[in-house]
Amino acid sequence: MDEYESNTALDRTEVTRRTVIETGTTALLLTTLPRAVFAAGPIDESGPPPAPVNVELQINGHPHSLTLDPRTTLLDALREHLALTGSKKGCDHGQCGACTVLVEGRRINSCLTLAVMHDGQSITTIEGLAEGENLHPLQTAFVEHDGFQCGYCTSGQICSAIGMLAESRLGMPSYVTEDLTQPVAELTDPEIRERMSGNICRCAAYPNIVAAIKQAAGTPA
């Protein structure tokens, strides 16, 4: 077998759980990945950074003009440029939900989107929910049901819950919705847990969070 045939055979090698265990992950990847993967070489970051851009953000009802590196995430724009630190940076990979905010009423992970993508859009963070001394109903419910312990995930939990309740009122089903032909009649515990599954509470206050959301939704806890 010549070198070309040998490389082609390696490229066709099937990576299975057994081969990973038997061969060793590093050795297996080095021998089975196509040569083109390694041919690209390291990323060259020696060039000049991209030019700054002007961004107009409507945050909690107030306009903000920012000049940002176009690679700046919405989360970093909020925390580092506007000192709105209620939105937390947890995993920074969109897996924990601590950075959840509302954009035009829809919940998003602000660590996964660029600030420039939301030029002119209405953004609501945890700081914009209360009206003066009057807390948002979900904030009140979280306090009454002790829906937080360390509090790190709480801002994302509350913003996500607001977006989730809006989705349910629009009739949007979830993975556990039994009848997709009918609107969701009641936000049961399984419905709430599924719809909030993108928000992780490391203190495991999930029963209290569910109770708080059910109260805010008008459902007996």
Automatic annotation (TrEMBL):
Domain called 2Fe-2S ferredoxin-type: residue spans: 53-129
Protein name: Xanthine dehydrogenase YagT iron-sulfur-binding subunit
GO molecular function, one term: oxidoreductase activity, acting on the aldehyde or oxo group of donors
CDD domains per UniProt: fer2
Protein species of origin: Bradyrhizobium canariense
Keywords noted in UniProt: 2Fe-2S, Iron, Iron-sulfur, Metal-binding, Oxidoreductase
PROSITE patterns: 2FE2S_FER_1, 2FE2S_FER_2
Matching InterPro entries: 2Fe-2S-bd (IPR002888), 2Fe-2S-bd_dom_sf (IPR036884), 2Fe-2S_ferredoxin-like_sf (IPR036010), 2Fe-2S_ferredoxin-type (IPR001041), 2Fe2S_fd_BS (IPR006058), Aldehyde_Oxdr_Iron-Sulfur (IPR052914), Beta-grasp_dom_sf (IPR012675)
